[in-house]
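Quick illustration, no need to memorize.
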Amino acid sequence: MRVLVVNAGSSSLKLSVVDDGGGPEPSHLVEHWDRSDASDIARFVEESAGRVDAVGHRVVHGGSSLREPVVVDQRVEEAILALSSLAPLHQPAAVAGMRTVRQVLRDRPHVACFDTAFHASLPAVASTYALPEEWRGRWDLRRFGFHGLSHGYAGRRGAELVGRSIEGLRAVTCHLGAGASLCAQLDGRSVDTTMGLTPLEGLVMATRSGTVDPGLVLWLQRYGGLGVDEVNEGLEQRSGLAGLSGTSGDFREVMEGMRRRDARSELAFGVYVHRLRGLIGAMTAAVGGLDLLVFTGGVGEHSPELRATVVDGLGYLGVALDADANEAARADAVIGAAVSDLDRLGASAAVAVVTAREDLEIALQVRKLLGGEARSTPATPGRPIS
């Protein structure tokens, strides 16, 4: 089954084709996506995609009702849009992507795959906020977690790299990009994670604050005179690395500032690492120990300096890096103690870098859901609806 994977952002649309072998596959990025125009998508499908048997769509939030991949229909679209208050930039974009691509591939099955679904296995002690029962019941206030497509793939791929079965494996996966979260995994299932009801909780991110005292938010509104929209914009767009360093929040800019000995960049890096180390420790506690630590996402994959600094403070968890392997890592690689090297490095847990491949995870979920239902047919696009 050949799957076209659709990742719709607030202003961009990424398309990629995944075959049974996982690639290499053609891909296409529409940086400034006009949601009313399907011609660019039709052109990619006709010229590059070849045969397409099914389409998988990445959706950020599935809430409590959409906890596994599902074939897209009007009911599913409406359920996704109903969650827009929890992910206002992503939910409408995902549905717009579905509707636009279905204009081109209207006779193929379309499947929605959710970033929150991997965390549906969270136990109640990890997913429940200590809030009044009437609030939790009325508004379904709970911790959902995000980046599940990335965490699920990273855990399995990391285990493969270090030669371990996923069964019984205690892993912490670190998805570090503009958005960032950690996941504690046992037997390949999510046991705890750092993001919550929305993607704002947890780690320091590029422009998001991560966890702050809720009393601080109330203070800003009650005594600081800020409105709800001002606080929301500040926490989402002007906090995190951007707020600390004075840069755009891009991690590469922070590292460049570090090399110039810029005090704000040094503080930003220090706060980022401090929160990251602390929450890796919390995730490790959630699974009762650590067998595997995985770095993934743009920052996790491409910053050996960050990985070295973080792991240097985690010796108490039995983690150690191979400095040469860490510096040389450019793709999937073991950068710490492989099983055969644990004693040599004085470590008890392995460390790996995994290239983020949500597209492979989405394709896998589509194949599992559809089985033999999707027929092998040429990717002849239908006429876009004007």
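The first strand starts at residue 3 and ends at 8.
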